Amino acid sequence: MPPTKTIALPKILIFDVDGVLVDVHRSYWLSGLETMHFITGKRVTWAELHKWKSKPGNNDDWNMVSNWATTLGRPTTYEQAREAFQRFYWGKNGKSGNVRQEKLVVTARQIARWARRFELNLFTGRTRQEFSYTFDRWPATRHFRRVITMDDVKRKKPHPDGLLKILGRRDPRTALYVGDNVDDALAARDAHVPFMAILPPGTFEYRKRAARFRELGALALLPRILDLNHRLTIA
Asked: Residue 1's pLDDT band (boundaries 50, 70, 90)?
């Protein structure tokens, strides 16, 4: 494995949400599998899901479902994919949605520690409604100076608009973006913001994804978000 690239201590930390601060295996990802079965009638696999999630532009689950289902012979528009996905994510006809299975993977105390040293921000592919459901009641949310969702930008990831909106006229080299998807890496590259990737051991196609992140300039591959402390030599 190549040596970890050095990084100047940033002033601004920007986090993606899904796969970084929140475990979405049983919410977004499971909803994606269930939506694909609903639309196509086929039992797609977790391995196939991860393959499609790793394609540029598929950080947006509705876009992923539209592309994937269409490839399997069920032409599906973005709006059709969105409508179908919602019944599994939010629930329908009295049945609880998968959103209830989301789990935060970082404590409010850790967020507060970072906030004492850095300006904290979020740039997520979630809608504002999806973000609010999970984060409005979390005490740590108050530590984030800005939260940019897909509703706050004209162009979604992999476009860098959200990062640029957070930075304004500030030097992008003073920031660090932490994400888990190729779209996060592409957005950081195009915004000229240093990037670190969350990539747990055992992740599907780990070596391939690791190589792609390094190709896109990732400074480090972190098994989990708390390993950021070691990379920034903070506790």
From this structure: very low
